Amino acid sequence: MARLLAAVLVVGAAAMLLILFWPQLFDLQRAPLVAQAVTLRGGLAAGALVAALVLTVLALIAVPARRFLGSLALLLLVFTGANVVVLTSRGFGGAGFDIRGPDDLTVLAWNTLGDAVPAATIADLVIDNRADIVSLPETTEEVANEVAAIARASGVPLTVHTVAYDEVAKARSTSLLISTRLGPYLLTGDGTTGVLPSVVATSTTGGPTIVAVHAVAPLPSEMTTWRSDLASLSALCLAPNTILAGDFNATLDAFDGLGSDVVGADGLVVSRGDLGLCDDAAQQWGAGAVGTWPTGVPAALGTPIDHVLATTNWRVTGFRVIGDLDGAGSDHRPVLAQLSPAG
């Protein structure tokens, strides 16, 4: 009876670890509890490795339970290794940026935790990188205007577009700054995400549609809205010449199943977008496993929920998670991408 119970527990543990490793097999990547757990791949792998070591020691001590404990330890080691393979394939840091061309765009995104980051700090980052597109979830219009004023004085002129769902919670504001060299932009509606605003700006001169993203976090009470937010963002990425940047509160695992086939000139499917027809710049540049939240843990153990995505008329020529501003006030790290016209 004890052996039967042990076998059942081992099989159950194996099934649970399989779901946590690749919930896409069961279409559970956006399901409650599983969605939150798989977001923390790096942390899960580290925790499983520690647990495997503990179980191995216990197996050496407790001889009657050695086979059972050893089996659990082996499962956890396999789980750890499999996650390391996935994370390594997504990348822990790409090469340096290619030399910027005259038609390239530099995209910066930073969730500033409700104006917790001073305008001067944001502006310095914008100026140093000559950013053309700046997505600032949780940044109010007042601070965004300060950033633009400082940048303008340093020769980086930007126009400010802000959507605020209310004036009480700063987190319910999102600001988008766009270089004047891209021409005039108009806002379309009040946003595409439910609880927190996303800013959608369309060019009047044929430039890319730009979206400053802030999807709601996948809290138990917000799962329906979270899934709706991701579906809405995926629909935006079905339009040609679109760039999305900001806090998606989702990793590549949550995107799975929301991508669409990219069809080549010959009518054949050449790839599948990560979200709609958009590809994730971090993964394209070999940095898709670098955590952007929270700043209180090493990037290798954090979760990459801040993204820059673009349709296939843009190719990624640089991406990095900026890790030297962890003490600036936000719990998110900024992300910076360089996009070049494809073809």
Q: How do the helices and strands line up, and which of them pair or pack?
A:
Layout lengths: L1 H20 L12 H5 L2 H21 L4 H25 L14 E5 L9 H11 L3 E5 L3 H13 L4 E7 L8 E7 L5 E3 L11 E5 L5 E6 L8 H14 L5 E6 L4 H4 L5 E3 L5 E4 L5 E3 H4 L21 E6 L2 E8 L13 E7 L2
Parallel strand pairs: 1-2, 7-8
Antiparallel strand pairs: 1-14, 2-4, 3-4, 5-6, 6-7, 8-12, 9-10, 11-12, 13-14
Helix pairs in contact: 1-4, 3-4, 5-6
CATH architecture of the largest domain: 4-Layer Sandwich
| Largest sheet: spatial strand order | 3-4-2-1-14-13
Rg result: 22 Å
Question: Helix-strand pattern, N to C?
Answer: HHHHEHEHEEEEEHEHEEEHEEE
What CATH calls the topology of the largest domain is Deoxyribonuclease I, Chain A
